[in-house]
Amino acid sequence: MTFKFLDKLSQDFSELLNDKEECNVIIEVDQEQNKKTFTAHSAILRYRSSYFNKELTNTVPNDDNNNKIITKPNIPAQIFEIILKYIYGGIIDTENIDTRTTYDLTILANELEFEELSKKLENHLIESKAPWLRSFFTFVYNSVFKQNKLNNLKKFCNDIIAKHPSIIFESAEFTSLHESALVSILKRDDLQMKESEIWDYVIKWGTAQNPNLPEKLEKWSDENFITLKATLQQCLPLVRYFHISNSDVMDKIKPYKKILDKQLWNDWKQHLILPDRPIKSVILPPRLVLKSELPARIIELFSTIISEEHTAMISSWIDNRPASYSSKNNPYEFQLILRGSKDGFAPITFWDICDGHANTIAVTKVEGTDEIIGGFNPLAWDKTKEGWIKTNKSFTFSFKDGNIQNPILSRVKKEKQALWYSPRKDLLGPCFGLDEFKMRSDVSDFTQDKQNKCDESNNYEKNIRTTNDKFSIIDYEVFKVVKKSI
What we know:
alpha+beta; 36% helix; Potassium Channel Kv1.1, Chain A; 3-stranded mixed sheet; BACK; globular; 6-stranded antiparallel sheet
């Protein structure tokens, strides 16, 4: 029989980390005021980490004590301290670190070639922190595709984009996508976009990488087309040219035919005239489902702020059945009406778009925190009305750190003062109570002047924030809540 005393072994090695005797490696991390120095044993680092084994092999002792000094200014001290404890003790306690730190730890573990750790953390994020990943989707997407591995996170992101491509293609960060990220999207057979739209975005991305190209296409030289073709050499073969309508080929692709191989262009012309005759170019299969073929309710439902778990919990609150719904048995659909980052952040935009819509949820993401703040209005928003609006079914809520654990729900208690439809719709958007949850901007942009507010509660049961400070938002969305058809 074999007895394994791994807990005691881990404890002893963890204590060795704090023993400064015989330490012969100094590791300097972080920058400026956050800079911190750690000591370690070369034997431990070599056998526990292939990355540090290579670093130590290439590092020459350079102080009086014959220590090897490794400098890593791009590694945050807080994250490296966790990594070092893992190296010595083999333990990571995700319960005591926030989600952003866990994510940063995953990225660093991958960079430092701790494959077992990065894989474990990667799966933990997908299985337990999916709402956070969705809430910070663009940030996550850009960072994971800079890594050599993390394939599960890459697939998690691409599965979302395939169904909801607008989250990336219509984002302000689209043109800054890493090439490998764009290529991975274009390879998807289930990308829910028309092929002509995909072509438009490929051209947009390619030209953005070459800001010196003339703005007007008629001024382009042959050298300009060669430059664009070189930039898009990994992307162009992934466009499904033979599944683009003839009119779109003539209007959209022909102006850029110089970036295509001559054989492809000649084959397309032959295919147009004699579709049954064989051609030399590879004909990729059509995408499985085009966006235009999707049921209307599926298009643009995805939220950049809330997850399916959030919508299930909010649905339970609407029916006053706490925690009775899950993402699988949610009886409601959340249909996107407005997204600030797409439609604009002016207060009047809210009233113009949401006018006449009843049973709506407004959700915001607070700048500087991971908070999600929102409210439910069972009545129709009406830009012609002014003053107090009566209802006993409205409520406000918040999710600290964006997580569904320990949310705050606050139901209306003074139904005659449930909602305030301001006469100044150029200044105020949705207002629950007086100031219990109010969206306001004096410069026609909710993201700019920190006029949004969640004040002490009089008309609702409780405060949904721990502070009365005014705030700006990163984004906000409004959904119409609709009962699913049976």
